[in-house]
Structure formats: structure tokens, C-alpha cells
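Case study.
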Amino acid sequence: MSARSFVTSPAAALAARRGRGDERPPGEPRRIGYLYLLPALLVFGAFVLAPLVHAFWLSLFDWDGITAGHWVGLHNYQDVLSDQALRTAFGHALILLIFYAGLPVAIGLMLAGVIARVQVRGLPLFRVVLFLPQVVAMVVVAVMWRMIYDPGNGPINTALRGVGLDGLAKSWLGDFGVALPAVGLIGTWVMYGLAMVLLTAGVQKIPPSLYDAARVDGAGAVREFLAVTLPALRGEIAVALTLTTIAALRNFDLVYITTKGGPGDATSVPAFQVYQRAFETGKVGSAAAIGIVLAALIFTITVAINRVAERGTGARR
Amino acid sequence: MTSRREQSVAYAILGVFSLLAILPILGIVVTAMQQPGGLAGFGSFDGFHVDNFRRAWEQGNFGSYLKSSGIVSVSVVAISTVLSILAGYAFGLMRFRGSEILFYIFLLGLMVPMEAMIVPLYYDLRDLRLTDTYWALILPQAGTSIAFGTFWMRAFFRTVPRSLVEAARIDGASSWLVLWRVLMPLARPAVLTMMVLLFMWTWNEFLLALVMVTDEGLRTAPLGLSFFQGRNQADLTLLAAGACIVALPVVVLYVFLQRHFIRGMLSGAVKG
Amino acid sequence: MADVRFSEVHKRYGAVAAVRDLTLDIADGEFMVLVGPSGSGKTTALRMLAGLESITAGEVYIGPKKVNAIAPRERDIAMVFQDYALYPQMTVFQNLAFGLKRRKTPKDQIERRVREAAAALDIERYLDRKPGQLSGGQAQRVALGRALVRDPQVFLMDEPLSNLDAKLRTQTRGEIKRLQKDVRTTTVYVTHDQVEAMTMGDRIAVMHDGRLEQVGTPEELYERPANKFVGGFIGSPAMSFFDAEARAEPAGGVRLASGPIDVVLPGRDTLPAAVTVGVRPECARPWTADRTDLAGPIAGRVAYVEALGRETFVGVDAGAARLVVHYDGRAALLPGDELTFGVVPAGLRYFDAETGAALATRGAPIAS
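After joint prediction, the assembly is written out as follows.
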């Protein structure tokens, strides 16, 4: 179609030269869109964006929060890779991912796989209970589990001693070897309900005819799961992984209440490092940098997970 | 596997994990009602000593903590709800230059954790002499809540049939009137879900309170609990009672409105 | 009351032209139907008139006023949407009153006008209900009522009957027409259904690919289509076409040849050598001894049979051409049968084989 075909009159020619496409219809709010946006933008800009920019600025300095700071450029970021303390912290974050994200999603998938073709009554009730850990404040969760993990009279050790396994009764949050997994399991407890609810909701949307077709083709239970359930749940798995991963990286509350990073640095995590460096050890610049890195990680992981999921379905949720 | 077997397995999994989910919570409730000063460990039942709650409220100061949390949460929810509705309306139903870019900026803000903002926020607010005020807790949380709320309301407004808005405009309604008289009645469930989620996240926020607030009179509930734990290592029942009090408002809200909570989180809420 | 004028109106979305060079005059009080297939630009034209789309080039006038830059609410128009667009949380009464309230109409007047409109549309008993409690037909009337109550200069209707079942559609068609006759408000009505257009419009504007193909009364469009598109669009079953060679007969008349079709038509005007011939079903009849008005015979093979009780339409293949032959009553035919038929010469229409434009001929009215 040549340009000539729709420019058939002088008026149209003028419009073609001037207009860059669809103009707003008459009377439809023009600038007014900005007006509606303004209050939200102001608050958001002042208390989220500005701090973010400021955080980046702070991260370029070595500052103790009191005296003058001095410029170090990207040195604080390099520390993430070179400073032992930070490498440990991020390493722990990676391990915690398994507990916060890996395990819950696996549990959710297991349930989803089983529930795919059966009628389960009372699912809404189960959902309410399973979701409960998500609703309770993290501080309360931490206090709760500290009591559970109590080496003296916490229920875990009491039960172990009760069945004669005294040897296994450790100081769960105080023992170098088990502290991190112990904290991780709390995360698992908080997140698995979310994963289960998310994935079972997704499974119920799968048309049963897909399973029938697979059965007719001779697929067994495992095959069905891999060929039908898993691909159909791509979107839900992406959401679950995204939410759980973000929770894994933002675990300040839990670590602060349960172990404060200890014993030693056995449960040191980036989120706690931010607090410690900014408000206890006078390394504000480094703290800011870690915060930025956390934000960047969350962003990258969110985008990456959703890209991979999108490629499969080809459609955005 | 027969369908019957599968059903049993499904119920078993659901049952076990549901039990695991609720046991710790039941445990702390039971512990809160134990005889104070008794020897019972966490979770053992030894009576309904509800007086512990009163003691936690008064001696433990949890009454004051709840009040602070209430003030902050209600303020944050009120401010961000209104502002998010306005912004979501603009993004969802109006065309203006740069709307896409601006929206992506909001989306970005959705992914920024408090851990990334807390450091500059503290020093900035300290310079403004706003630390140790409710504003230090309300404004930053309003900011992050608006990021989520705008995303949420925009998603809703995009489901509104355009013809409805057009009919109202032809009838002579201004954009303001269209929003509040025509669209808001439709938006009630979505707005309620948003309010409920924002309330929960604000009520449960800890790091911000820890950094911003030193005055005991301003302590929010999670912060109060954290201090309480620091002081009272021995008195298990009191600590448990305090913990229950802190968690109660959101849990009660959840029990009555769980459909909203679950639906909201299932819609891919990115904010933690 | 106002007339409506489109003057060289263009609408472009980026590189795509939705409406091209639309010039159309609609008289005060006229019921004008814009009809065409999807993508023809009819809805876009309506929306530009409503002020819901900007006008890329050209002018639109309502009465003496040029309305290009005027907001919808200032244009004194009322619109009925395909999905009715009723305010879901308001009662029917409030839905009807909404526009009046916005214009600061006094309360007692609102009350009166709403009840009048409700009475006219027989929806008085629904006034306290909400849209969610109405059936499709009832909701449609409320949508009409909302427009009626405003007493505007122009009614705009965007396929208001599309979401109704066939029976309700036919019924409501008549009612809309009757209402319009009563209030005599200029009405611009968009539809893709040519039957609706033919039965409702004072005049019809056929649009195709953004262009106005022809505007005229239903009779004009039916008898004298301006081009092949209009010929094939208006009328049901549609006009059949075949390409033919035309040659002047030495003994007078014109010979049309196309495969097995070889007919001589008496006393015709001159035709170009290559021509597209349009045949309406009622102009193709079975070849029987008692019909002396047919040109033919043409031998063909039955492709399909559509028995409608009162009449039967038979699709016939004659070489490369597929024509539709009309039978009164039943036809004892099956697909595959051979069929000989003829055509009524005066009822044929001729179009330029390349451009599709109608060729000027002395055609007699087709309806026999």
C-alpha cells in the first residue's frame, strides 16, 4: 500500500505530515492524566525513588555515618565479590533459596501433581489453614520458632529426648552446623502454604481432556505429570518462584530475632548485613551497596523467571 | 493408582501440611494461656490463664504498641488507597504521553526491598528531624504501598469496558465523576483486597520501625515484641501472649476476609 | 433537530487508514444506516461523530456547528452501545436520569422525562431494578431509553441489536424504527447486517475498506448498485457474479458467453468485451416451457439446495460460474442433479470487469 492511497485530499495530506498517529479524542482529559498521577508520584518519588537514588549515591562512599565520608567509587560493590564476610552472606542467601523457594515449590508441585485429577472436598478450608503462615508477622513467626527450637524445653528436643534420641537434641539456632538450615526451615514453613495454594489453583485450570489424551497415549502417572501438569503450571511456578525468592532475600526480620547472624557468622545474610553495617559497624556506604545489590538481584531474578515462563506459554498472565 | 487411592494421598498430603502449618500457631496460643511461672515448655496445655493477655497488654505495654501500629497502618492504608486509585485510574483509562515509562517506574518501585531504602531513608529523615515520629513510619510505607496499589488498581481499571466510560462521558460526566460515581462501585472488591493486603504488610513491617523509632511510646507492635523478647527471656507465657496480641489483628482480618487475602496474593503480587 | 455532515473525513491510526475521504450528508430527521463488513470504517465514522475518536482530516458538522474539536458532552448527542454500557450499580431509573442530572435538569423534569421514556419503551416496571437483573432485551431497551430521555439533536446507534437473539432482533427493529418516526430525531445507525439496513434505513450508506461505496434509499441500492461490492452486499441471498465476453449480435442484441452460458439478450446497450454480470436469485429461474421472458437455456449442475418452505434457492454451477436459481415453493432437486435455467435479461446488472464499477445501462427494476 503506497502512501498515495490514503492521502487523497489536501486536508489529508496536511494531517499526514503533521500527525504522528492517533491523537486524543476531543474533550478527553489530556494534561489531566498527569494531575491524577501527581500525588501518588510525589509520595512514591520522594519516599521510594529518591531514597533509591540516594542509596546508590551513598554506596559510592566509605562513610561511618558521623564524620565525613570519602569517595571509593564502585569499591563497595567489588567487596560483594571479594570481602569474605559478604561472600559468606551471599553464599548463605543462595543456600536459603533452597529452603525458601526450592522446597516449598517442590512441595506445592507434589500436591499439584496428586490433586490434578481428583476431586478434593474442603479445599477452601485447607487453603485457609495453609495460607495462615503468610499472614502472621515475621517477628511473631521468629519468636514462635525460637521457642520451638529452644534447646532446653522446646518441643523438638523434648520429643527427641522422649524417644531416646538425646544425641540429636541440639541447640538448633546456636550450633554452627545446623543454624542456617534451622533458619531455612522456618522460611520453608512460611512459604510452602503459598506455593501449595498457588500451584493447586493453577492445576485446577488444566482441562481434564489433556489428561485423558495422555492416558489414552499410555502415559503413566509420572509421565502425565511431566508432560501435562508441569508445562501447564509454568506461569504459576514462575509466580511462586518469584515471590519465594524475594522473601528469601528479604529475611532481615527472621535473622534479627532468631540469631542476629550468629553463631559467629553462620547465619549471616545480606539483609542483616545491611542493618549491621549501617547501624552497628559504621560502614554505611557498604550497607547501601548491599541494599542496591539486593534490589538488583530481585529485579534480575523476577525478569529472568518470567522470561523463561513466557517463552513456554507465549502469553503474559 | 486408582482414583480412590489418589484421593487418599491427596487428603493425606493436605492434612499433614495443614497440620504442620497450624501447629506452631496453636502452640503459641496454648503457651500464651499457660500458668505463668510454670515449668511447661512451649505448646503444652495447662489451662486457660487468659490473664496473661491482660498482663502483656498492661505490663508489657502491648496496648500502646497496638495503638501505634493502628495509627500507622490505618494512615498508610488510607493515604495509599486514595492515591493509588487516582494513579491507577490515570494509567488504566487515560492516554497521555509517557504513561508507559511512568508505569514501569512504579513497577520498578514494587521490586525495591525495604533493605535497599532503609539506609538513605534513615539519614534523610534524621536530617529532616522526622525520625521518632509517626511520619517516619507512615510516609515510606505509603510510598511502597502506592507502588503496589497503583499496579493493582491499574490492572482493575483495565478490565472495565471502555463503552461504560464512553457512555458516561457522552452523558456529560467529568473524569472525576466517572471515577467516583460510575467506576468505584464496581471497584469495591478490588479496593477491599488491596486495602487488606496493604494493612497486613504495613502492620507486619519491622525493619523500618526498628531503625526509625527509639521512643517507646511510638513503638509498633512487631518492634514492641522484639524488645519484649530481648527483656523477657524467662517469662515464656508473657512473651507468647504478646506475640499473639501482635499477630491477632491481621489474623482476625484474615479469617473474615481470607478470600480477599488469597486472591490478592495469587494475582502475582510481587511485593513480599 | 439537526442535520449531520461529513466533509472529506479521514481517520488514520498510525499507518492504517480506517476511514478515507468520507463525504456524507444526513438530513434533519433522517434515519441513516451505515452498513458494511467489519473493518469497513462504519463504527469509526460513528465514533468520530460522537467525539470518541479524533478526526485526522476533514470536518464533521452537527447542524451548523463544526464539531471536530468539541467534546462529546457538548455535542448534544446520545449514543446506544452494542453492549448497552449501562451503569451497573445504579437502578434503571438512575441510569436514565444520569445524563439529565449532569446537565442540571430540574428534578421534577427529570422525573417526568424518565417516566415518559420508560413508558415509550415499556420498561416502567424495571425502573427500580439494576442492570444485572435485566434480560438482554430489557437491558437493550434501557439503553435506548437512556438515549431517548436526553432528547438530543442526533441519535447514534452502534450495532444495538447484535447481542439479541434473532426473534428479539426482528421485533426490536420495528420498535426502534417506530420510535424514531415519533420523535423525528436524526439518527445514525451502524450495523453489519444488510437486512437491518434495508428494513430500517431511510437511506443507507454502504462502506467498505474505509470508503463510502454508495449512499441511497434501499430501493436505489438494490436496483442500481454503484459497483460490484454493493451489488454483492445488499440483498439476500446475495447477487451472483460471473465474468463474460460480450459481443454484439448482427441481428441485434448482445451475446454473453462464459463457459456453458451462452445467451443472447435482446435490445441491449453496448457492453465492453469483458464484463462482470450480476444476477439476483429472482432473476434466475428454471427453464420451463411457459416462461417466455427468460434468456437461455443454461445448463448447470446443482451444488446445493436451500429449501425455505415458501421458496427454494438452488446453487448451480455453470462452468466456472456459481449462480443461484430461485424456485417458488419446493424444488425436487438434489446436489449433483442437472438443471436447466434461464435469466431475466432486464434484471441483469453489468459491472466493469476490472474496476467493478457499474456500467450505465437501461436496466428495468428487478423486483418482478
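Observations recorded in class. Chain C is about 25% helix and 35% strand. Chain C has two domains: 4-232, 237-352. We will return to this complex in the next lecture.
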